[in-house]
Amino acid sequence: MTRNNYNKKNLSDFLSEKKGYSSLFSQKIVDDLIHVICQNLILGDITLKNLGVFKIIQKNERLGRNPKTKKTYIINKRKSLSFTCSKSFLKTVNKDG
Questions:
Q1: Cα(58)–Cα(76) distance, rounded to whole angstroms?
Q2: What is the pTM of this model?
Q3: pLDDT at 44
């Protein structure tokens, strides 16, 4: 994996190469994982041991401004997703070599 941006196809192809699964089976695994995470986020926060925590954050309505035209507009309240990685995951990423 040398690219910085991935889509589901890239992830399933990488899984296929590394583990020897068929590309269709790898694609199903990636789709199912994303589906499980999304469905459980609806119910609340998700903690994945040794990876991190996904949280839903409520953002309030606020006043926004277009910096180019200086026109102001209202940004509606919405939900946003936050991810905080675990200490062990961070250690793995920061290892030298």
A1: 11
A2: 0.70
A3: 87
**What residue has token string 């936050």?**
82
Q: By the 8 A CB rule, do 80 and 50 touch?
A: no
User: Above 60 in pLDDT, residue 1?
Assistant: no
CA 20 to CA 22: how far, in whole Å? 7
8 vs 32: CA distance, rounded Å: 11
Q: Distance between CA 76 and CA 16 in Å, rounded?
A: 41
Q: Say which CATH topology domain 46-97 has.
A: HU Protein; Chain A (4.10.520)
Which of 35, 39, 17 is closest to 26 using CA atoms? 17
* φ, ψ dihedrals at 69, nearest 5°: -100, -10
Kindly tell me if the per-residue pLDDT of 28 is higher than 60. yes
* Greatest CA separation for the chain: 55
Domain coordinates in residue numbering, the chain: 1-43, 46-97
CB burial readout 72-85, b (16+ within 10 A) else e = eeeeeeeeeeeeee
